Amino acid sequence: MTDFLPASIRAALNGVHPSWLAILETGLRAVAQASPTYLQDLAAADYLPTEGRMFAAFTQPLQAVRYVLVGEGPYPRAASATGVCFMDGAVGSLWSDKGLSKQVNRATSLRNFMKMLLVADGQLAIESTTGDAMSGVAQQAQLPGSPAIQLLADLQDNMVGQGFLLLNASLVFRSDVPPVKDAKAWQPFMQAVLQGLAAAAEGRGAALPTLVLWGKIAEQLNAYAVTAQFPKAVAEHPYNLSFIGNVGMQALFGPMRLLKRAQ
User: Does pTM top 0.85 for this prediction?
Assistant: First the structure.
């Protein structure tokens, strides 16, 4: 029963895949127990994402999750915050005549993630990821019949298809509340999600999903006892240029061919 939830937060659960509902309820009860007024205060405030997308990361079946990519929190802009980590809703096309689109280049982490994928795919050399090299890649990507994806939505679909749960450490952003404060309030929820994933994998006799942790905020998940059970792939945050050359991330993501149209 979710009667303890404010109506708007309860309504946001309507888009969640049914396999997640019991786990998310457990997590939300844990948030309410740790901070009894938090959810009520949140429901009365302005926060991102809008349009009931607080739980947008949980639309695929629980059993489909093979990786958990953890972001810090929603983008601080209504057009960008979608409830799904690292996917900027203000980005449409991935490419331009000169390389990546202006929207991608403004989203530093996304830009570096895409360049890392291109290096892993052999389309870019690590010593040459700008200028003419990037322009050549973009021109090839936009040729008629190209196998390259064209939209950020395609990239998100490909990642979900590979089993990614694209989850933020805090499910909300509020302009008048420090993100670290909201993230702390959501810690019991995050622990419940990880415990639910571990229990589901054990129940099926399946391997646990891999936690993909980028940057210091994501690495804070290591403070949870349940996290020790999971395999991990750890890297610097992709807003660092060094992320493009991270060989561990290239090895993880390269075989996924995320920049190719799904067959």
Answer: yes
